Structure formats: C-alpha cells, structure tokens
Amino acid sequence: MQEARETIAQKIQEAEMVLVGLGERFTGEGSAAPIKKAYENLAELLQEKDYFVITLAADELIYGPGLRRERIVRPLALQEDESGGSEKVEGTDESGDSENAGGTDESEGSDGAFPEWDAYMRWLQGTLRKKLLVLELGVGLTVPQMIRFPFEKIVYLNEKAELVRVHDRLFQLPENLHGKGLSVPKDALWLLAGDEG
User: Fold this and answer.
1) What is the pLDDT of residues 55-93, one digit of tens each?
2) 100 closest CA partner among 127, 72, 76, 121
C-alpha cells in the first residue's frame, strides 16, 4: 500500500491541477476516525496545489481537516425545494441527470442556487490544456453520473489529463482511456488514512 501512496503523491506533485472525487467509501458509515485521518492526509498532499474536491458524502467531516472549504462541493447534500420539501440532488436536473458534468459552458450549469457547484464548473473550465490529475478515490456505481462518468469524460477530452482510479473492486479503466490512467486495486479510505484497514 505504501508504494501506491507514493505513486499518487508523485503524480499530484507533477500535476498543475488536481481534481479529486471521493466516493461512497467516504460517506461516514462506521467510525469517523479513519475518514478524518484520510482527509488530513489528502489536505497535506494537496497543500500547494490548485485543486477541487467533489465528494458523495453529505456530512461535514470534510470541512475540518485543512481542505479549503471553497474548493469542496458536496452534490448529494440534500436540498429542499420550495414546493413542499421534495429532495433534489445538487448539480442534477429533475431527472437526476448531471447538469453540465465535465462541460465548459457555464450557462448550462446550475441557476445560482448552488454556489459551490457553480465554483466547481468554473474551476473545471480552467483545466483544459493543463496537466490535470483526476484522482478518483473509492467511487463506485451508486451515482456514477456525479463523479465516475464525468471524470472519464474529462480525462478523455483533455489531452494532458490522467486518471488515477483507486477502488478495491471497481478499479478498471475504460478502453478509451488506455494509456491515460492508472488503476489501483486498493481500499481508497485505508490507502489515504495510511493504515492497512
């Protein structure tokens, strides 16, 4: 596991920009201690970098350990709409499809109701033609339209982008990203937390 951590740290250092996706493994099931430790270690890795983090976690644990709040978006934080409390997933339209995920036209993003999502979309616009590391940690197939599929599209479209996918079971890369990524068959939480789990 140490070799995988070192490889990821090296790739982060070599990148101009880093996009991090934190998946289901970071949603707070079980003890919060390893998640907090993983966030602290991630903050240390990203310290001098231009980064953005998108997480499937709806809790606020991610805000404590040194990651910049303005560089985090939590699209699954539930929002009540004005029509009586129905839930809407941030960054999706009424059908649940991702709004402009991986796109570059700001006018297609949210309507201003989700400033974090708008900031994420603006940041993504600046990644084109940059050496971008897309780091996907523990992202499964629960809501693939939020992180997994958009990340693949971003890497496919950006000639200088590379995807590092860390997952204990779903680490495979699609064929169209051959030579543009690295699969790490490890538990992302424990890899980041610095423990064998």
Assistant:
1) 998 888 888 778 999 999 998 874 322 223 334 444 444
2) 121
Of 3.30.2350.10, 3.20.20.220, 3.40.1740.10, 3.40.50.1220, the CATH number of 2-193 is 3.40.50.1220
CA atoms in the 13 A half-sphere facing the CB of 143: 23
**β-pair type (50-55, 17-22):** parallel
**Residue whose token pair is 């409390």:** 85
Q: Identity (one letter) of the amino acid at 157?
A: L
Domain positions in the chain: 2-193
Query: Can you tell me the distance from the alpha carbon of 144 to that of 167, in angstroms, rounded to the nearest whole number?
Result: 14
Strand partners, 51: 18
Burial class of residue 40 in the structure, from the number of CB atoms within 10 Å of its CB (0-12 exposed, 13-18 middle, 19+ buried): middle
